[in-house]
Amino acid sequence: MKSAIKHDxxxxxxxxxxxLDPLVTINAEGKITDMNEATVNVIGMTRKELTGTDFFDYxxxxxxxxxxxxxxFANGSVTDSPLCxxxxxxxxxxxxxxxxxxxxxCGNVMGVVIVARDVTERNRSEQELIExxxxxxxxxxxxxxxxxxxxxxxxxAEDAVKAKQxxxxxxSHEIRTPMNSILGFTKVILKTELTAKQKEYLSAIKLSGDAxxxxxxxxxxxxxxxxxxxxxxxxxFRLSNSISTMLHLFETKIQEQNLKLVEEYDTRIPAVxxxxxxxxxxxxxxxxxxxxxxxxxxxxxxxxxxVREDKExxxxxxxxxxxxxxxxxxxxxxxxxxxxxxxxSTSRLYGGxxxxxxxxxxxxxxxxxxxxxxxxxxxxxxxxxxxxxxxxNKKAKQDVEYLEMDEAIQxxxxxxxxxxxxxxxxxxxxxxxxxxxxxxxxxGRVAIEMLEKNEYDVILMDLQMPEMNGFEATTHIREVMKxxxxxxxxxxxxxxxxxxxxxxxxxxxxxxxxxxxxILYSKIVHLVSNHAEQEEIEASSTKEIVIELxxxxxxxxxxxxxxxxxxxxxxMISIYLEQTPPLIALMKKSLNEKDWESxxxxxxxxIPSFSIVGMSEEYEEMAVKIQDFANSQHQxxxxxxxxxxxxxxxxxxxxxxxxxxxxxxxxx
Length: 668
Known about the structure:
five-stranded antiparallel β-sheet; 17 strands; Heat Shock Protein 90; Helix Hairpins; alpha/beta
């Protein structure tokens, strides 16, 4: 029996020692009676030192330990009760107490067995997790606050940009409106009989006014580019026409200075490309203006060259060269800074704001290009840049060319909607000089009342007026009255904001104040003429097709691009004569058989031929529409009518070109 008891005792001891957690037995008085090695290690005292000591003294909260001990006696056991052990060196260990009573053979409670599970690392991990979660929530809160602040800052920035834009708009209007009158009446008076001294004084006023307008435009352009709000459009335009129109502006000045203007244009460039013609025009104007300003003798060369192309894009290089004063190497970078010129004396000698090249640089770089300069002091300067454009089959917007005043064109009735009496008087003087009939309305509401009673050929609409402004009036004219009368916006705001709004609400064009008489005359005549043609087309849409058999070809372009090479001209005309009749026949056959692929292919081959032989753009546009129809298969009746027109005019061109070909062969 003794042996059995000893065996059981050893077995029990083995189980107790197998536990890695502290295990102690406590008697009814709360004294430790036994423990395992883990307890010794955790508390840091020997078995002898621990035996008979008070169990509760080894916890940071003795009272709570006593309550757990009492709970075991009361309930027979306890589960996962959290406490903290303190060793002899005051090191703390987080534990979960699990305990139960033990009894003698008679069932009497002898004491309690307590196992203290070490959860220090687990608690630390949980605490770190909690802290991490708290930090994450705090970070999230901080990020949310930062986001709100950023959004508020963005809103404030947007408001600031809007305020700046509004300020620029108001400033532009307030300054340009009186300048419009000053320059306008100066031009009117200069056309009257004057003494030499009066003419000298008025010319000085006009020169100063022109300089003031340049300064205003430069500041507004620069502010708009710097704001980052400048949007570059992608609209179809004829590059050759844009360049010709721009160079035309400098003809008088170049002639006055006895300079030679040379234009070099690469004929490989497609007739119509996609891009921002207005921004390109700004770049051209600044570069050519600089060249003219700083060149007293020699020549100015404007060169346009195709660098490379693929199916969708074309890279074009532009350069402006002069034989002027040149720029020293140390000043070549300086000239692109705001309000800077090559030297301090440059501004005194030649004038200018020092903003032109800064604007050019930003406009070029904003479109993905880079402006380069090559110069030799005393010999001349070349500015060059390359821009990428997209190819297109779309029709370019009709370019308005400067028209000479024609005394035969006087039956145009104009409604001028303008609230400032001085501007009314100026417009009266300008329109009287054109020989146009004119009436005036002081605001949009009065204009609408006049339009309800009378008919006008064109409306000149100021944008900022009391009671009803130009935008509100135009919207009413288009949407309520359903009138298609051409409307030209008169605006002292040269930013693009108003112009976009003008187009959106149905205005046909715009002109900035101070008004350029040539531009105003040209735009009025073009718009009235186009509107009359459109009404005539609509009125005769059900009538038989009639084409006036005026001369349908103009070989100036062919002569220019072949450099008057009669052999090459003859060859190109022969190709036209060979391919055109079969193409027309194929187009008619394809339309009748609804073979859209063949119709589209034939139309595509026809399109370039119209510009080559100088036929009206109207017919090129018809061929483009037929090609578009072949892809979309809509408006079959209208396309059939267009094809009939093309057949008639191409037959006429065929006959004219045969005569031209005979003439060329005789010359050859």
